[in-house]
Amino acid sequence: MGKKGAKKEEKQTRSQWEGKHPEPKSRVDERKVVATVKLLGSPEVCNLLEFKLDCSPSTKISFIVDRIVDRHGGSISDLSVCVNRFHPEEIVGRDKTLEQCGVFGGECLIYYDFVPRAGALLA
Question: I need a surface site. Which of 49, 67, 94, 119 has the fewest CB within 10 A?
């Protein structure tokens, strides 16, 4: 009698919805973007500060800004960032994603500029 009771109990614990839900979608964006990040200015200086960044269309501009600041050793702030062309009217907010800027995959250009901070080097 113990075995029959166990089977009945097992049936009751199974949900009526089990197996009826679709598989959850991954939150990882599989689409790839290679962003070439460039400082706006003279070509001699800019080439030294140019770098490539592997990301996805869901990457936020704030992430890219953080990587730029890292490349400058934390010595810059107040960056202006534009995607695929630099124009003062097209400066992108940090909360936007590359996808919201029209980048869905492939390659893109990220241009940035900043105002130097006053400090020991700028007297």
Answer: 119
